[in-house]
Amino acid sequence: MTAAGGVSDGTATAPAPRQAQVRWALMFGNFVIGCGIMVVPGTLNDLARSLQVSVAVAGQLFAVGAATVCFGAPLLAGWVAAFDRRRLLAVALLGYAAGHALCAAMPSYATLLPIRALTMLGAAVFTPQAAAAVGFMSLPEHRGRAITFIFLGWSMASVLGLPLSAWLGDNFGWRFAFVAVAGIALAAAIWVYAVMPDGVRPAALSLAAWKQAFSSPLLMAIVGVTFLAGAGQFTLFSYFTPYFRDVLHASTVESSLLLVWFGAFGLIGNVVLTRVIDRVGSHVAGTAMVCFMAITFIAWPFVGGVLATSLALVPWAFGCFSGQSAQQARLSTVAPALAPALMALNTSAIYLGQAAGGSSGGWLIAHVGYGALSGAGLAWLIVAIAVSVWATLAAMRQGR
User: Fold this and answer.
1) 382: buried, middle or exposed (CB in 10 Å: 19+, 13-18, 0-12)?
2) I want to staple 56 with a disulfide (CB 3.0 to 4.6 A). Which of 14, 146, 153, 362 is the partner?
3) What is the largest CA-CA distance in the chain?
4) 168 inside domain
5) For the ranges 29-43, 131-145, 228-242, which has the lowest average pLDDT?
């Protein structure tokens, strides 16, 4: 037995009511992390105007923050391995709160950029360690559902955080939106600290375990799917608000409603996934979610206007955040003993994909225009589908 009530397979159990409280708190923590990610694309119009830079340059705030999490997640995973997760997760959220408050006070783009990068270290710690912790606390047969449940927070961030930050940016300015993220991050830190039990410490990974993770073609293929899908999506997603304004000529209200619409179907997708993933299997679910996303990118060049765009967004939204959840569950199912490392690597891949997509999208806007975004995104997603199918077949052959 561990200090947290562990059993022989390395799983720490807790009374059902306490586990439910922990899952809700960690889900809210992921909601806050998602809101902090979305606050840049949501306020991109005001950021560019206020800081007197182009939309493409302002969008690099998103790419830089994503790159910080990409490299920070696996590097920090080893350093924080011995920390009690109750304190670690609360401190990560406190740092996230302080960082967003400090970002709001920055007078220029040059000063905002490094502070934004440092702020995202909180996301680099929280997201993978929350997933590893809830997986550690769950029985193996419930692990997939537990992990996908806490990632509902990401879907909720797209339902509420993205459109709300866009509305706040248009009406009160980007600084107010950043302060709002700081406030809810503080609330999340208090909640997580209040309900997490002491003694949750997933096993620290040795150098040999890291080598095992990196040397597995199957595991690296699954992580690769996360990167490729993220790059495809964020080629376009990073520039939603200026796209709606400049291409669709949508009003502020119409843009906000499109973001709410996207987020609502993202939430629906994650709820559905949470209910079916343990039945259909995480490999099938992960592949299906990437296919849903690709449908939208195929249709995108042929739609115009707010109504047609809203319909085209549905399959993408359905697969977007549920795809991330499926990937986390997929890795935890294949190699539960390596979960802390794999959660960190997968989080790294999420943000590396966001950085690649945001950067390439900015370059395309500056040199080609908005029309090239969907084609570039689709190319990433086609490769993601091919790799995901290979990983699914490989896992079936290995009985995993």
Assistant:
1) middle
2) 362
3) 61
4) yes
5) 131-145
pLDDT digits (tens, 9 = 90+) for 20-63: 888 899 999 999 998 998 898 888 888 989 999 888 888 888 87
Task: Look at the chain and report how many structural domains it folds into.
Answer: 1
Which CATH number goes with the domain that contains 391?
1.20.1250.20
Give me the domain span that covers residue 199: 16-397
Residue 172 DSSP one-character state: T
Tell whether 11 is covered by a domain.
no
Instruction: Report the distance separating Cα 246 and Cα 95, nearest Å.
Output: 36
Q: In this model, does residue 112 exceed pLDDT 80?
A: yes
Token digits for 127?
Answer: 């997201």
Q: Which two tokens stand for residue 116?
A: 């934004």
Q: Where residue 1 falls among pLDDT bands split at 50, 70, 90?
A: very low
Is-contact 120 150, C-beta < 8 A? no
In contact, 236 and 243? CB cutoff 8 Å: yes
Which residues, including other chains, have CB under 8 Å from residue 44's CB and lie 6 or more apart?
55, 58, 59, 169, 239, 241, 242
- In this structure, are residues 93 and 30 in contact, taking their beta carbons and an 8 Å threshold? no
Specify the DSSP class assigned to residue 158: I
